[in-house]
């Protein structure tokens, strides 16, 4: 998990650098004529906000469609039976897996119990 966070952070930094460069290119004439540090700080704020939105969307949903992402997609609902070694009875069960790039939540529901793991 730590490695995935590190890779996501590296992607965020590169996105921010690219977006900052593009933002400065759009305002190149303004920067040449009337250079102001205040403008650069404003551009930085815009870039950080936009990068945060992009990375949040990527971490939540978009990573599933990236063919270069090596994290397996487990997000699904499964229905099956469990065999208890305690009383030798088969029970119907449902397994719900909710997944983002950095987290997995697993919920097991049977007729007798519920179990949740993060």
Structure description:
With 118 residues, this protein is an alpha+beta fold. The protein contains 3 helices and 4 strands; from the N terminus they run αααββββ. The chain has a 4-stranded antiparallel β-sheet with strand order 1-2-3-4, with no helix packed on it. β3 and β4 form a beta hairpin. α1 crosses α3. The chain starts with a helix and ends with a strand. The mean pLDDT is 91.
Order of helices and strands: HHHEEEE
- Rounded mean pLDDT is 91
Radius of gyration: 23 Å
Got a strand count?
A: 4
Largest sheet: 4 strands, antiparallel
Low-confidence stretches: none
Q: Please, how many helices?
A: 3
Apparent shape: rod-shaped
Strand order, biggest sheet? Answer: 1-2-3-4
Proportion in β-strands:
15-25%
The percentage helix is: 40-55%
N- and C-termini, Cα separation:
13 Å
Question: Structural class given helices, strands, pairing?
Answer: alpha+beta
